[in-house]
Design goal:
Strand order of the largest sheet of chain A: 1-3-2
Radius of gyration of chain A: 19 Å
Structural class of chain A: mainly alpha
Strand content of chain A: 5-15%
Largest interface: A-B, 49 and 49 residues
Order of helices and strands of chain A: HHEHHEEHH
Distance between the termini of chain A: 37 Å
Helix content of chain A: 55-70%
Oligomer: homodimer
Mean pLDDT of chain A: 91
Number of helices of chain A: 6
Chain lengths: ~130, ~130
DNA sequence: CGGTATCCAGTAGGATACTG
DNA sequence: CAGTATCCTACTGGATACCG
């Protein structure tokens, strides 16, 4: 449970509280637009930096590197540098990354499936 | 496909391009920390505003109202006002909201399942 | 109790330029 | 080509105060 605070102050809770705060931290990391879109893009295949930039519509150079570092740090993405010139850097989802990707896929599917419902809800709301 | 730009400029594409940009807009709306945590919290049961505030650890009054309006506008959440005094306002997931909640559940599960992997990846990365 | 408005500090994030 | 650093604006989001 990410949303719930663990019960107060018993000494034995120390480990659980740490795990919970770690979970919340990770959740905050990945629950953002660019991270999820990058994961989704990498689901199909390994991509180089420049390919990712083209694939993830609207992402800036800065946001892309920033999120890639974060995903790498959390073990969701592997970064492979080919020491050629010019350099060639490839990003691949790790196992856990692939798992998460499946969930993101569901969200993407959900979005397209409910476009109509949402559009209606919006016009109803905006009046 | 949320991440891909649709193919350029053929007149027949107008509808598809509209759908795609709408999808991206919706995705940006819901792919944020607070929205997902609120959906997750409401998955268990209908909650009043103040209960939500307690349930979603760390959310501010402002962020909560803001995200609730957004979720209501997109038809993910129903808002029911009981005209008592003091007022009582209850929030419930709609059908589509419940569907999305299932996906968010998967992400929450994923997070807890891979805590170890992630922690290791982090210490490896941070050296 | 729940919602809205105001203020403002912190930061996210774009543009740009430079390195290997 | 990919990464890092710098600058600078715009917006996010918290605190506070006030209405119904």
């Amino acid at each position: 449970m990410v949303t719930k605070q663990l019960l107060k102050g018993l000494p034995e809770d120390a480990d659980l509280r740490r795990a919970d705060s770690l979970a919340r931290e990770i959740f905050s990391d990945i629950a953002n637009k660019w991270a999820l879109l990058i994961i989704e893009a990498l689901g199909e295949r390994t991509l180089r930096f420049s390919e990712l930039r083209a694939e993830v519509e609207g992402v800036s150079h800065k946001m892309l590197t920033q999120n890639l570092r974060m995903l790498e740090r959390n073990g969701l993405v592997d970064r492979e540098v080919h020491p050629t010139v010019p350099p060639r850097v490839e990003y691949t989802l790790t196992g856990p990354g692939q798992d998460l990707r499946a969930a993101v896929d569901v969200i993407c599917g959900w979005t397209h499936q409910h476009l109509g419902h949402i559009e209606n809800a919006r016009t109803r709301f905006d009046t």
